[in-house]
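Lecture notes, unit on binding sites. The following record was shown on slide 14. It pairs a sequence with flavin mononucleotide.
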Amino acid sequence: MNVHIVYAHPSTDGFTYQVLQSFIAGLDAAGHTYSVSDLYAKGFNPELGPAEYARESNYRADDPIPADVAAEQQLLAAADVWAFIYPVWWTDCPAKLKGWFDRVWTVGFAYAPQTVQPVRRALVICTAGHTAEHLRETGCYQAMETTMLVDRLHDRAQQKEFVLLGGSEALEGEEREAMRARHLDRVRCLAAEL
Ligand SMILES: Cc1cc2nc3c(=O)[nH]c(=O)nc-3n(C[C@H](O)[C@H](O)[C@H](O)COP(=O)(O)O)c2cc1C
């Protein structure tokens, strides 16, 4: 399988970077090929500009698209699997990734008409401060899952999965490390079993 990873975190010091590394280790172990769009590292511009806004809001699929958007779309179109890896910030992805959807999910690629072939599988893997259980109780988990799987991925993927790795921040010392190790194992297995 060829996997394209869209990664959004500004730092290599955090847990989300370890999640990325574990996912890649799992891909390597299983012999999958992969590409990574590291949105902060490449300085991806998340702002939909006036010309892009005019193109999208008027459904002008024949209008040109910016080179950076075209490059993202080519990576997506070449993949069998997409993986989105990011931290939960205010019950959503970082603004940089939200802007990536604003700009990369263009008319004539993602919809109206959709020309990108549905990928076999899409994985949304996010880290969170709260536990998945707590986020389910508040309804935030369901809101994020719906936004990512039902709206943003929709029928652009044949199989979709939302994986939330939460709760380790409230722990300390060995307990925190043990929970993070379990999360990282889960991610490695997910990648290896694609
Ligand atoms: C700006 C900001 C907003 C956050 N909002 C949430 C939130 O809404 N829900 C949640 O569970 N955790 C939230 N967190 C906690 C992060 O999800 C958590 O710190 C992150 O997943 C840990 O990964 P990292 O070490 O790679 O940053 C937030 C953190 C930041 C910095």
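Take-home: The mean pLDDT is 97.
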